[in-house]
Amino acid sequence: MSRHLEREIEKLKKKILALSAVVEESVRRSIRSIEERDTPLAASVVKTDAEIDEAEVDVEEECLKILALHQPVAIDLRFLVAVLKINNDLERIGDMAVNIAERAVFLNAQEKLDYPFNLHEMAERAQAMLRRSLDALINHDAALAQAVCAADDDVDALYVAVYELVRDGVRERLEHIDSLLNMLSVARALERIADHATNIAEDVIYMIEGEIVRHGVKDFKIPAAAQMDSPPQQSAE
Which residue from 231, 226, 19 is spatially nearest to 134, judged by alpha carbons? Predict the structure, then answer.
């Protein structure tokens, strides 16, 4: 790799990591806005979306410039392809955070529901998947990326449980239908965040190993040290 190409790739790494940090924080704040019924916090998430969109375009343009000027091969080419795809997933995760925040604005103005939704665990698991997929990217850790992919089934199961609660709630208490449907929309957004985290992890595996694993990664054996049986504890702010 030429020194100039090396500098350009390092610059691109900093850009994608900066975007990752903004997106991860946006997701965290959107979830807090529901848990703490904090409408101003939800509004701030919506405002951040323009910053994420701008950064996504910047990263894409940087990738295309490197491809055009340097015509990289092997691992460098795989890195650029992976970043282009991860960049898109990060922007979509930002959109999901906005979706959650918009639902929070509505829900915070309504009577608090007393249904046993397990959105907290679902949110923790989705955030853990996102965080660890980005850690796998930073550290070139294929085993960690495989663990992220394997964890997606747990989030899917939690989403199904929320769906069933909403279905039963609509039948029993029609007056809460709007709030229930908004809660289901939040759960769906969290499920989609987990899906995008899985996409990122699959692209990390491609970048490291040069193999496309979208249709078989869940059959991999995950090393014990990388397993995600439960979400990590959130650090105190």
Answer: 19
Distance, CA of 33 to CA of 38 (rounded, Å): 5
Task: Please check the confidence at residue 231 and state whether its pLDDT lies above 60.
Answer: no
Domains along the chain with CATH numbers:
3-226 (1.20.58.220)
Query: What is the Cα–Cα distance from 136 to 145, expressed in whole angstroms?
Result: 6
Cβ 211 vs Cβ 146: under 8 Å: no
CB-CB contact of 84 with 72 (8 Å):
no
Give per-residue pLDDT as tens, 18-44.
999 999 999 999 999 999 999 999 999
For residue 200, the surrounding DSSP H or E stretch is helix 177-209
Burial class (CB in 10 A: 0-12, 13-18, 19+), 182: buried
Global pTM value: 0.86
Amino acid identity, residue 218?
K
Q: Which of 165, 159, 162, 182 is nearest to 42 (CA)?
A: 182
Rounded CA-CA distance 17/99 in Å is 23
Cα dihedral across residues 147, 197, 15, 75: positive or negative: positive
Q: What six digits make up the tokens of 75?
A: 């691992």
Amino acid at 89: D
Residues in the chain: 237
> Beta-strand (E) ranges in 129-232?
none
